[in-house]
Every structure is written in structure tokens, then in C-alpha cells.
Amino acid sequence: MKRRTVYLGMIGDIIHPGVINIIREGSKYGDVLVGLFTDDSIASHKRLPYLNYEQRKAVVENIKGVIRVVPQEEWSYVPNLLKYRPDAIIHGDDWKNGPDSQERDAVFKVMQEFGGEVIEIPYTQGISSSGLNKDILSIGTTPGIRLKMLRRLLKAKPLVRIMEAHSGLSALIIENVEIAKGNGIHNFDGMWSSSLTDSTSKGKPDIEAVDLTTRLQTLTDILECTTKPIIFDGDTGGKLEHFVFAVRTLERNGISAVIIEDKTGLKKNSLFGTEVKQELAPISDFCAKIAAGKRAQVTQDFMIIARLESLIAGGTVEEALVRARAFVGVGADGVMIHSKEETGVEIKNFCEKFRGEFPNTPIVLVPTTYNQFKEKEFVEWGANIIIYANHMLRSSYPAMLNTAKSILENERSLEADKFCMPIKQILELISGGK
Ligand code: SPV
Ligand code: MG
Known about the structure:
Elements: E1 5-10, H1 17-29, E2 31-37, H2 39-43, H3 53-60, E3 66-72, H4 78-84, E4 88-92, H5 101-113, E5 117-121, H6 129-139, H7 143-156, E6 160-164, H8 168-176, E7 178-181, E8 184-187, E9 190-193, H9 195-201, H10 212-225, E10 230-233, H11 240-252, E11 257-261, E12 263-264, E13 279-280, H12 283-296, E14 303-308, H13 317-329, E15 334-337, H14 345-357, E16 363-365, H15 375-381, E17 385-388, H16 391-410, H17 423-429
Parallel strand pairs: 1-2, 1-4, 2-3, 4-5, 6-9, 6-17, 9-10, 10-11, 11-14, 14-15, 15-16, 16-17
Antiparallel strand pairs: 7-8, 12-13
Helix pairs in contact: 8-10, 11-12, 13-14
Residues 194-196, 206, 233, 235 line the site of magnesium ion (MG).
């Protein structure tokens, strides 16, 4: 007699006794068919797993009791249940309450429709992937896994959300902060190592005065306490001969991408007033720098993104497009189009035209001055990465200033307590601090 098929949805990143238990229980009812969540199906709900789909598949299909592994492309089980029509689905009973209960209802409904069974087994207490995930976070990651993460996110998500970090502490917030929204979790996908906020936090102007070695000190602090991917603000990239070393250094540290801007001469921050004239680099010089960087990188995964400063320098969208074509032509892995114009009209125009010509080349936006738009709108324009480039630093400064003023005003710190994090929370914030 043909054995029954039992469907089991799984991420399969961390294999713990709870996973083995549910496979064992499932085998009692029939052949276990694992629906392995793809990166795409996970991306809008949780952080991407450490291992990619192929790596997780290789592990899961070798677990005793697993007969077959198929991709689960949606967060909901329903499409796969309709496709494979298993005799049963097995799930831990922890989905009875909370946000998963809606999915449970949908699963019961579809299984009833074709006469399938829903098997619920007691949830293995005391061990869970999320709990273990936290433990793994405290161990850290490897440069290789971190480096690859940006390309995986770009493949899996319509929009990659990046936030500026200028210290270990600011990076820790970005690593951990999340809010429940809809039936998923919203968080930041990675970090921007900004030249503006890194130099400002060191009390220096944003004119490439902080050299790479010094920038690496901040990066090391961030790397040591986080696991999310990092995009490095490479300013102009410096001299071609130096840029190739910078690429290697960043890559070796597990940085996912460097963005270099097509300016020349003394670099000033792009958001300065119009009185600061920015000179654009000759197209051929900048192309040579990108090409040299691409030749220097060791992995397939590292990205060199060309930042177009035409609009900042007073040029037109057409001029920016000419440069973009040349930069992509010599191997740039993406473009960042920058503008301080507040309506966002030029940026939208650029995005739509560029997207028409290059359907798959990532577009990066830094919406500091045109921040009235929501992320969804940027996706409609064709953008893939949004960088909130300076907000952690800009928000911390007024908080510090208010505290300092309050203490001066009141000649004691009692009134400033409301601006401050409680000491207990500070101690809990950093693992190993208690
Ligand atoms: C930075 O964050 O340092 C940047 C982005 O380069 S901007 O400040 O908008 O030029
Ligand atoms: Mg910068």
C-alpha cells in the first residue's frame, strides 16, 4: 500500500532536537515531505537564515525520516498544500495563538477541502530557532557569510533597508531593533558606514580627512558586535592605485559593498549648500577606477556601486544617465543617484529612465532631503536599496545636548533622567555586561 505523505514546513537553518522530534513524529504518519522556505518567502517576515537555500536543503534532505525536500516559495503553507496535496500536514501546537493562528485557520480550511489531516504535536519547550538565533548572534558571524548577505537580500526582497551606523552602539541598535507590522516583522537589513557620520562623530569635517585605517577602527567596532551586512561609503575611492587596496581590505573584512562617488578634487559633503562647487571626475578616469576595483576583488559577491553626483553638481538627469551607462558598462554592480533637491522629481525621473534601460541593475537612493516619500513609492520608481544615511547620529546629538543643558540649568542630573536610558537597561543592552 502506498505510504501517506506528511507535509512539514521548515526553515532548516538551525537543526535542534525540536526539529528532529517533529520529523520523527511525522514519519509515524507517513513519508515526510519537507517544504523548505526559500529566502524570498522568509525575507518579508524574518531575518534571512545564515545558510542559503541550497545549503539548508543539503542538510535537511539528509536528516533521517525526510523523504523529499521541495521549495516553499510563500510564507503561507496553502499554495504548497494545494500543489502537493499531502495526506497530512504536521505542525507544532504553538501556532494556536498569536499571529500564526490565522495561518492555522487557512491550513485547516484547505486540508478539509481535499480531505487531508492536520496533525498538531506539543511544541518542544525550552528550545526554539529564535532562541538559538539569539545565541548564534552572540557568537557572531563570518566575513564570508556577512559579505554574501547583501546580494541574497537584493534577490529576496523588493527593497533593502539600510541604516547608518557610526559606532558599535549605534550598530547594535540597528542589529536588534524590530517592530511587528502587518503579519511580519520590520527591521533594518544592514548598515551604512557613512563618511559624514563617521567623521562627524570623530569631530572632523567630511572631506576625506579620516583615512581608511581610521575608518576601519569604527568598522571593527561595528563588525565585532553585529552580523548584518555593511555598505561602506568609499567617498571618491581616492587614487585608483589606492582604491584597489581598499577593495581588498573591505572584502577581507566581510563588507558587502563599497559606494564611490564620481567627484574629483577636494571632496565636500554632497548635502552642503550650493556655494560649494563640486567637480565631476572625467568619465574615463572614474570608469578606470571601477574597472580596477572589479579586477582587484577576490570574491564574486563583493559589490562596487557607482554614485552619480551629476545632480548635486547642477547637471541634468540626461548627464547622469550618460555617466551611469558608462559605469555599468565597465562593471559597476549598481548605481546610487544622489540629489538634495526636495521634490524628488529628478530622482524619480532618473530611476524610471535607468530602470527602462537596465532592468536588473540595483539602484540605491539616499532620501535625506526628499524624505516625504514612503519606501513603497521608491520601489515603484525602481529603487532596490534605501539608505537612511545620517539619522542615528543626527538624533543622538540633540538628545545629548538637551541632557547637557538640563544639567547646567538645574545644577543636578535629576531632571535629565527623562532623556536618559536607565542604568539597568544599559547593563542589559550589551551581552556580557552584567
Ligand atoms: C554620507 O553619509 O557620508 C554620504 C551620503 O555620503 S550624503 O551625506 O548624503 O552625501
Ligand atoms: Mg559620504
